[in-house]
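Hi all, posting the design record for the shared folder.

TITLE: backbone redesign
STEP: 1 of 1
STRUCTURE INPUT:
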């Protein structure tokens, strides 16, 4: 049984990187963005996140297998940031969101998404934009550590 909470997502100033690829590249890409922030003395304002643009599960599966998934990772930051080298600074909107907490292998996340989206459908909610996977721990530092991911879906 999936536990879904309705929350108010907070707007953030972020630095971010965006590429195309496969979903197993998300965790290393998060590590790359965090390393960029550390190397440039950028103050973090929260944990990093993956922005999942493919909200249709079949489209996500096809994009993954084709190596064409839209991989955007972001890191909330404090103050103004001089972004460079493939990293951009921008604002990430807040608003009403549904949230679940996932703990387990990243490769098994698809089933959690199926349950999450089914719950949203049963409760008359529609996903209204890219889903955010916020990585509470740092699995890129310890590959044997299973990720703890707060998944936020903007809803209407």
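Okay, here is what came back for every position:
SEQUENCE:
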């Amino acid at each position: 049984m999936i536990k879904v909470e309705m929350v108010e997502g907070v707007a953030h100033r972020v630095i971010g990187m965006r590429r195309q690829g496969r979903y197993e590249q998300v965790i290393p890409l998060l590590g790359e963005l965090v390393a960029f922030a550390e190397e440039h003395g950028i103050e973090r304002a929260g944990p990093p996140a993956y922005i999942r643009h493919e909200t249709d599960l079949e489209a996500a599966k096809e994009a993954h297998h084709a190596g064409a998934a839209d991989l955007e990772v972001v890191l909330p930051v404090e103050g103004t940031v001089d972004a460079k080298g493939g990293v951009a600074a921008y604002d990430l909107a807040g608003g009403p969101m549904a949230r679940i907490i996932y703990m387990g292998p990243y490769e098994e996340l698809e089933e959690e998404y199926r349950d999450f989206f089914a719950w949203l459908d049963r409760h008359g909610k529609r996903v209204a934009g890219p889903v955010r996977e916020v990585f509470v721990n740092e699995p890129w530092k310890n590959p044997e550590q299973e990720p703890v991911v707060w998944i936020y879906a903007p809803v209407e």
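COMMENT: The mean pLDDT is 93.
Let me know if anyone wants the other runs.
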